[in-house]
């Protein structure tokens, strides 16, 4: 498989699977959408407009063994599929062994928008999508929270108590488990995108990733008190990672345009208040 950037598409609302009846998907998808709407009207639910904070008490035991599961996820051929020269995988990744709103990423994102196939009018056979994103990237479609599309939870109440923070945590745990199952993607460029309500889930997932990669490491290894000793190698590495992430940002005006030239421009543009 050629090296491509790794692109994760979270469309409409986001765990991945195949071969569940269409009737069940429609019913469950509509129910979770109703739960989402009703949840926004109740203060007791997890949907809020406050500043999002990543969950820092992440339990590393949530990352489960993934040996031999990759090959079990391999899809040899989809119904009505033509011959192709790329590999496909589909399966479940557990994010909570003890333990949802919107449209299916697989049904809409993969089969109607930017996936490698389209569905013929007979509803049974497929044809190639010449505009598929997998021509330039390895694409992963994630259905989340649990209850959306083909994803599910063994605990029924999860469908009515799901919230943005829980979804961000589940998506992060999914990513850790998935990368353990497919370790060849760990060092690839990673992009995450979405539409509709995923406008919440995408930045919250990105925030959680950065928090555990950088901020959490600084809190864990660095001591900035006046009587602190020489910083550890772990602290220095974490600090350098954060500096790399924000080095191009103007801290005094984050909306200011970047200027990569070492010299001043001859005639700066006039500012505008429009």
From TrEMBL:
<dbReference type="GO" id="GO:0005773">
    <property type="term" value="C:vacuole"/>
</dbReference>
<dbReference type="InterPro" id="IPR018202">
    <property type="entry name" value="Ser_caboxypep_ser_AS"/>
</dbReference>
<keyword id="KW-0964">Secreted</keyword>
<comment type="similarity">
    <text>Belongs to the peptidase S10 family.</text>
</comment>
<keyword id="KW-0732">Signal</keyword>
<keyword id="KW-0378">Hydrolase</keyword>
<keyword id="KW-0121">Carboxypeptidase</keyword>
<keyword id="KW-0645">Protease</keyword>
<dbReference type="Pfam" id="PF00450">
    <property type="entry name" value="Peptidase_S10"/>
</dbReference>
<dbReference type="GO" id="GO:0006508">
    <property type="term" value="P:proteolysis"/>
</dbReference>
<dbReference type="GO" id="GO:0005576">
    <property type="term" value="C:extracellular region"/>
</dbReference>
<feature type="signal peptide">
    <location>
        <begin position="1"/>
        <end position="25"/>
    </location>
</feature>
<protein>
    <recommendedName>
        <fullName>Carboxypeptidase</fullName>
        <ecNumber>3.4.16.-</ecNumber>
    </recommendedName>
</protein>
<dbReference type="GO" id="GO:0004185">
    <property type="term" value="F:serine-type carboxypeptidase activity"/>
</dbReference>
<dbReference type="InterPro" id="IPR029058">
    <property type="entry name" value="AB_hydrolase_fold"/>
</dbReference>
<keyword id="KW-0325">Glycoprotein</keyword>
<dbReference type="InterPro" id="IPR001563">
    <property type="entry name" value="Peptidase_S10"/>
</dbReference>
